[in-house]
Design goal:
Length: 295
C-alpha cells in the first residue's frame, strides 16, 4: 500500500526451483513493486511471502545472500573498469578476492565481455552494460535471479544475445523471475507466467495455455484503409469468433484463419492487404489489459 493506493492487491503465485517465471503487465501494473518485496527491499503491508522458505521481512540479509538482482536501470559504477565492477560487487557479499578474481573471469566469458575487462564501464554500449549487470548479479552464484525489464532499450541483436545468456542460466538450473512488457520476450524466456494489471493477477499459465484460453488459434488482419475500416466491420459479423476494429486495421479472431479470409471474399469485401498469422501472447495481453495507454 502507498497511502490508500494498493500497488499489489493480494496476488498469489508460486515459483518452482529451476523455473523461468514471468510477471507480464503494462507500466504501473505492480511488477517492480512485487520484485522489490521478493528481494526484501520493500516491506509489504499484508499477506505472506516466502523466498527459499524464508520471509524477506524477517530474514532479509539471508534471503538477499541467495538472490541475484538485475534492476530495471543499470546501476553500474562507471568510474570502475568492467572487471572491477564484478569484483567490488562481490565484496558486498563478503566474498574473498581469491574467489572473486577467477569468478569474474568466468562471468566475463559468460557475458562475452572478456575483451572489455579493462575498459571503463562508460565506454560500453547499452547491450554490453546490460550483460555486465547480469554477470555482476551472478557473482554470488544465486539460487534465484530477479530480472526487472532485462532488455528495455536494447536493439534486437542485443536482446537476442541476452536471451541466449539467460536461456543458458535456466538450463544450468538457476531460477529466473522476470518482469517484462515485451510479449516475444515472455514467450522466449518463460516456462510459466502471470499477467498482472492494477496490482492483480488477470491470468496465469504457460504461454501456450494462455493463448489457448484467451484467444483463438489464428488471427486475420485486414486493412481496408483507415477511413473504411469502421464502415465495413458490420459486414464481417459472424466471421470468426470475434472482431476488433483498430484505427489502421480490423482483426478477426478465428481458429481457421484461411477459412475466415475466404468468407470475407465471399461477402464481396476486398481489403487492401490481408494477413493470416498465429495468435500470440500479445493478443492475450491486449485482451486482458486493454489497448489504452497506461502512464
Amino acid at each position: 500500500m502507498y497511502g490508500d493506493f494498493a500497488a499489489v492487491d493480494g496476488i498469489d503465485f508460486e515459483v518452482a526451483p529451476g523455473e523461468s517465471f514471468g510477471l507480464l503487465g503494462p507500466n504501473g501494473a505492480g511488477k517492480s513493486t512485487t520484485m522489490r518485496m521478493i528481494g526484501g527491499t520493500l516491506d509489504r503491508t499484508g499477506g505472506e511471502l516466502s523466498v527459499l522458505d524464508m520471509d524477506p521481512a524477517d530474514r532479509g540479509p539471508e534471503v538477499r545472500a541467495h538472490l541475484g538482482v538485475v534492476p530495471q536501470q543499470d546501476n553500474l559504477d562507471e568510474e570502475l573498469r568492467v572487471r572491477e565492477n564484478i569484483v567490488m560487487y562481490g565484496r558486498y557479499f563478503g566474498l574473498p578476492r581469491s574467489y572473486l578474481l577467477p569468478r569474474s573471469e568466468e562471468l566475463l566469458a559468460f557475458a562475452q565481455l572478456e575483451a572489455k575487462a579493462g575498459e571503463k564501464v562508460g565506454n560500453l554500449s547499452g547491450g554490453m552494460k546490460r550483460r555486465l549487470t547480469i554477470a555482476r548479479g551472478l557473482v554470488n552464484e544465486p539460487k534465484i535471479l530477479l530480472l526487472d525489464e532485462p532488455t528495455t532499450g536494447l536493439d534486437p541483436q542485443a536482446r537476442h544475445i541476452l536471451w541466449d545468456r539467460l536461456f543458458r542460466l535456466k538450463e544450468a538450473g538457476t531460477t529466473l523471475v522476470v518482469t517484462t512488457h515485451f510479449m516475444d520476450e515472455a514467450e522466449q524466456l518463460c516456462d510459466r507466467l502471470i499477467v498482472v494489471d492494477h496490482g492483480a493477477i488477470m491470468a496465469q499459465g504457460t504461454p501456450r495455455e494462455l493463448i489457448r484460453e484467451h484467444s483463438t488459434r489464428e488471427v486475420v488482419e485486414l486493412r481496408f484503409g483507415s477511413d473504411r475500416n469502421a464502415q465495413v466491420v458490420d459486414q464481417l459479423e459472424g466471421v470468426g469468433a470475434r472482431n476488433e476494429v483498430l484505427p489502421d486495421r480490423i482483426l478477426i479472431y478465428a481458429d481457421d484463419g484461411e477459412a475466415a479470409l475466404e468468407e470475407v471474399g465471399r461477402r464481396g469485401l476486398r481489403p487492401v492487404t490481408s494477413l493470416v498469422r498465429r495468435s500470440s501472447l500479445e493478443d492475450v495481453f491486449l485482451r486482458l489489459t486493454g489497448r489504452s495507454l497506461v502512464d
